[in-house]
Design a protein that fits this description.
The protein is an alpha/beta fold and 220 residues long. It is 15% helix and 24% strand. It contains four helices and 13 strands. It has helices spanning 7-16, 87-95, 132-138, 199-204, and strands spanning 23-26, 45-48, 52-55, 78-84, 101-104, 108-110, 115-116, 141-145, 157-158, 173-175, 179-184, 187-193, 210-211. The strands form two sheets. Strands 4-3-2-1-5-8-10-11-12-13 form a ten-stranded mixed sheet, sandwiched between helices. It has a three-stranded mixed sheet with strand order 7-6-9, with no helix packed on it. It is globular, with a radius of gyration of 17 Å. It starts with 6 loop residues before the first helix and ends in a 9-residue tail after the last strand.
Length: 220
C-alpha cells in the first residue's frame, strides 16, 4: 500500500491543529518534528519536561549549547522571554493542567482513547515512561502521532490495548501515515485519509471498527 503520508507530512498536519497562544509539549521522537512546521506568525509556547518553556528552533551546527537540551537530549535554542527551571516545577505545570496540548508517540491506542506508549512488555525492552503519564492526564488535549502499522504489519489502533497503559481514555486525536482519527463517544471517527486511500482499505488496516467520514476530505 503506497498511499501514505510521510513523517514530515504528519508533523505538518499536527502543526495545523495547534492554536495561537497554546502551551504545548512535544514528546520525544517523532513529535519533535512538529516544531519545524509551526507557522512563524503563530505564537506557540513549547514546553519540555526537563524544565524549559519557550523553546526555539534547533541551533545551527557549531552553535549548540550543551547545557540547553530538550527531554530527548537534543540541543535546542531558547526564544526571547523563554525560561528554564527546576524539573519539579516542570512536572507541576504538566500535572496542574497548564498545558493546552501534548503530542505523544504510541505503541497502541484503543478505540476509547486509551494510550500505551512506554513499554511493549518484551523481556529485553527498557521501560521508559518518563513524564508520559503526567502529560497524558494533565494536558487539556492529547494528540498521538505514529505509524498506523507496526513493522510486522499489525495495527497499532486496536479494540483494547495489550501493552501496559500510560493513560485511560486520554487521547483526543490520532495522526498516522494513513489517516487522522478523532476519538468520539461513538468510536474512532475518520477525519481525513491519505490521498487515494479508500475507507475500506483504511478499515482493513485498522484493528477496530472505524466511523466513516461524513464527507470526503482527503487532504494534508
Amino acid at each position: 500500500m503506497t498511499n501514505r503520508y510521510s513523517r514530515d507530512q504528519i508533523a505538518a498536519r499536527v502543526a495545523q491543529d495547534i492554536p495561537e497562544g497554546a502551551y504545548v509539549n512535544l514528546g520525544i521522537g517523532l513529535p519533535t518534528k512538529v516544531a519545524n512546521y509551526l507557522p512563524a506568525e503563530r505564537e506557540v509556547f513549547l514546553h519540555s519536561e526537563n524544565g524549559l518553556l519557550g523553546m526555539g528552533p534547533a541551533p545551527a551546527p557549531g552553535e549548540e549549547d550543551e547545557d540547553l537540551i530538550n527531554a530527548g537530549k537534543q540541543p535546542v535554542t531558547l526564544l526571547t522571554g523563554g525560561a528554564y527551571f527546576h524539573h519539579g516545577d516542570s512536572f507541576a505545570m504538566m500535572r496542574g493542567g497548564h498545558l493546552d496540548v501534548c503530542v505523544l508517540g504510541a505503541f497502541q491506542v484503543s478505540e476509547h482513547g486509551d494510550l500505551a506508549n512506554w513499554h511493549t512488555g518484551a523481556p529485553d525492552a527498557i521501560p521508559a515512561v518518563g513524564g508520559a503519564m503526567d502529560l497524558a492526564i494533565g494536558a487539556k488535549q492529547v494528540f498521538v502521532m505514529m505509524d498506523h502499522l507496526t513493522k510486522t504489519g499489525e495495527s497499532k489502533i486496536v479494540d483494547k490495548c495489550t501493552y501496559p497503559l500510560t493513560g485511560v481514555a486520554c487521547v483526543n486525536r490520532i495522526y498516522t501515515d494513513m489517516a487522522v482519527l478523532d476519538v468520539t463517544p461513538g468510536g474512532l471517527a475518520v477525519r481525513e485519509m491519505a490521498p487515494g486511500l479508500t475507507f475500506d482499505e483504511l478499515q482493513a488496516a485498522t484493528g477496530t471498527k472505524l466511523l466513516p467520514p461524513a464527507t470526503a476530505n482527503n487532504r494534508i
